Amino acid sequence: MDAYEKLLKKAKSSGQQVNNGTKNVKRAINFSKWKLILTTLSIVLMIIPTCYIFTFMYYAFGTKSTTLMDVASKTLYITEPNTTLEEMEFDMDFSIFSMGLSFEQYKQIGVDFYPAKSYDLTFVLNDLVKSDTISHVEKIYPKNPTETNQWIVHPNHTVEFPTEVEWRVLSGLPDETVVEAYLSFDDLYNVKDIVKEMNSVDVTWAAIYTGTEDDMVSADGDIVSPIGYPVQRDQTYWSPFRDSTSHEETFLMMLKEIEPYEDIAVKVSSHKNLELEERIQYIEANGFKTYGVVVTGPKAEIVSLRDLTMVRHMKLGEVKLWNWER
């Protein structure tokens, strides 16, 4: 009997040792799992702040956030006729390796400024990966340029819209309205001469001849879009033309500033071919001439411009109730 009891005790002891060994193994496995989880969390918690620090440093000292904002805004001034931006309307937000930029664009109709578009841009480092726009106007300027669908065209070109119908629609508007009109000329003119000739309205934007507009095609065979600059003195704080002594020279300087970022400019603008290098060279060699402008003013004053022999085509833009203060 004693030998049997000893055998049972030995078996129980062996079982306890096995159980204790199993528990120790499980405990070790659980400890390793928690250690791995905590180590991973620690690394992640270190990586995220590091990524944010890198992002802020990149947009502060690499490709600066202000540089990207300048490229976007200046592109719109030279490619979107009769528009302006407000500095206080710019909103920036940052996430890992990216920056969001949103702002409002305005259009002058009469003497007042009205919302034209809302822009929402997303940059991953210096690459513009998303460009969303919401239009607040009734008439939208052509998005994809062709030789004939522009609202302002070189004398060599015809237009897709029936200009006679545009004049009839304009004439049929109430006298108590102010309008925006896109005028194309029969030749090339100095902008200052146009402003003197049309002194009863505001000439807000001028399309500048850059040697490509005869066929609307660059030397590489790409269809190009009109570019130009605001004519009126712009006191908007954000405007690059604020207190400018020469809008022409400011325009040329802007083209040179945008050229290194032309891929971004093309994505920001509704016009998809700018060919800035070729056009800068032409302007520097030949100066500034315009083949069309945007004007705004009372309906009756715009109608009277039809009597000018220089005016070849007219495309009616936005129409608002009377706000003229002259």
UniProtKB/TrEMBL annotation:
Pfam families: Sigma_reg_C, Sigma_reg_N
Keyword Nucleotide-binding: no
Domain Sigma factor regulator N-terminal stretches: 26-110
Membrane-crossing segments per the record: 36-61
InterPro entries: Sigma_reg_C_dom, Sigma_reg_N
UniProt entry keywords in alphabetical sequence: Membrane, Transmembrane, Transmembrane helix
Sigma factor regulator C-terminal domain span: 170-318
Entry keyword annotation includes Cell inner membrane: no
Listed name of the protein: Anti-sigma factor
Organism: Ornithinibacillus halotolerans
